[in-house]
Amino acid sequence: MNPPKAAIADRAELLAYAYAMENEAAERYQDLADQMFACNNDDVAELFARLAAIEAKHAKELVEVHGASPAPMAPGAYRWDSLESPENLPFAEMHYLMVPHQALQLALAAERRALLFYRDIAEQTDSDDIRALASEFAAEEAEHVRIVEEWLERYPPADNGWDEDMDPPMSH
Amino acid sequence: MTVEAACPLTARDYKSDYKPVWCPGCGDFSVLLAITKALAEVGRPPEEVAVVSGIGCSSRVPAYTNCYGFHGVHGRALPLATGLKLTRPDLLVLAAGGDGDGYSIGGNHFMHACRRNVDLTYVVMDNQVYGMTKGQPSPTTSPEWDSALVPGGTGLRPFHPLVIALAAGANFVARSFSGDPNGTAELIVEAIRHPGFSLIEVLSPCVTFRPEEREWAKQVHPAPVEPTDDRGRAARRVLTDDGFNIGVLYRGRRRPYQPPFGQAQVEVAEFEAEFLP
Ligand SMILES: Cc1ncc(C[n+]2csc(CCOP(=O)(O)OP(=O)(O)O)c2C)c(N)n1
Ligand code: SF4
User: Fold this and answer.
1) Which of B40, B181, B223, B246 is in the most buried spot, having the most CB atoms within 10 Å?
2) What is the CATH number of domain A11-152?
3) B204: domain range?
4) Who's near A3: CB < 8 A, 6+ residues apart?
5) CB contact (8 A) between residue B205 and residue A92
6) How far is C-alpha B138 from the geometric centre of its chain's CA atoms?
């Protein structure tokens, strides 16, 4: 999941990766909220908007408290182990009829990937400074995981036929 | 990695305030992200960029960027982009659209844009269907694709855009997958920087009319060979691959078309007068 151990050379690099991950997650959740609002799926849209606000706060703290640079590197310069930054929900996973439980399961998986990302860095590094910072970020992600798990309990799983549309775009 | 090498513009600087109305899950969201990431990486400010399109779901891209935009007539993205680039060579001109727009009604313009080799980048979001008009087959649809509109499929051999682009003279040809927005952005950056006409064919699923295209995520793979500058070899490779090879497939060396130097410029008013009674 993570960039190889050698990839995180110093504090500035860890902050660059952390900022990219949190900022992209904030933008992605907001994009998904906008998509769901556009197709009148307000319940899911509101959840994504709340998650966007949490991630945006985290990204802002990285800049204001830790001094991360908000300037991105080239898209190909990030050595993510996955196609995108680990905390992004893939656009392709969306469905206009999805229910909050499904949305939150995707969010939970993303928050767990982010937690693992920082935890792996903390475990693999030889630098005390990087370990301390990565552990701090991992603790924040653990808190996000806890929040999403708590939200999940409030929503029932999707019924069979959740994606049935009485007025489908086209009948096959 | 050097943090100092970071570029100051971000993808968000290229996004407009209009919210896309694509279906959730559509590949075009990722392509829009890739385009904005690529523009940020190239570093030309939005006012120095023009995004030109025809008609279709994918052709809505200009409205969603903050650059100059021209949402043109169906199939006419490339003649519009060509005219714009020739009159304003200082602009970075990007054309975008779908397989229906580019290869069906716009097919003739596509061949001649490749032939002319004006310095343009053309991003085609190929979903092998007409999404906007509710699921008719396009020139890249496989012959057996069965739907309510075409029971039993068209039975027609699909158009092979990359081979046609190579034969017609495109100077850069690449294929990417929307599920990899960073990889797609990298290819767009390279296409923009490569002189002449560059084609990027993005496999971009239409989850509404071709839900089975979600499976593309499992089928795509990096091209197993290095890009070539040999047109014939590139065409043979593309003809015989499985259609899911991702990466730069051809980097040509043709000089981009330049209009004859010193030709008298015609004022717009003068030109317009020819059409007035
Ligand atoms: C002259 C003209 N003919 C037909 C149409 C109807 N039309 C609109 S979009 C479209 C096809 C779009 O397909 P594609 O370019 O693949 O885009 P997608 O919607 O799949 O992204 C057609 C036939 C039109 N708008 N104008
Ligand atoms: S109809 Fe297809 S191409 Fe159009 S927005 Fe929906 S998923 Fe995308």
Assistant:
1) B181
2) 1.20.1260.10
3) 23-273
4) A17, A78, A79, A80, A81
5) yes
6) 16
CA atoms within 13 A on the CB side of B192: 26
Residue A4 has pLDDT above 70, yes or no: no
* B6 located within any domain: no
Residue whose C-alpha is closest to residue B88's, from B48, B145, B34: B48
Minimal CA–CA distance to B8: which of B30, B39, B34?
A: B39
What is the distance of C-alpha A9 from the center of its chain? 23
What six digits make up the tokens of A72? 């991105």
pLDDT band, very low/low/confident/very high, at B267 (cuts 50, 70, 90): confident
Pocket of ligand 1 (CB under 6 A): B 55-58, 74, 97-101, 105, 125, 127, 129-133, 138, 206
pLDDT in tens, A18-66: 999 999 999 999 999 999 999 999 999 999 999 999 999 999 999 999 9
Q: Which two tokens stand for residue B180?
A: 């990899």
Can you tell me the distance from the alpha carbon of A121 to that of B260, in angstroms, rounded to the nearest whole number? 58
Stated pTM of the model:
0.94
| ipTM score | 0.94
Q: Do B147 and A172 touch (CB under 8 A)?
A: yes
Number of the ligand closest to the Cα of B211: 2
Domain CATH code at residue B252: 3.40.50.970
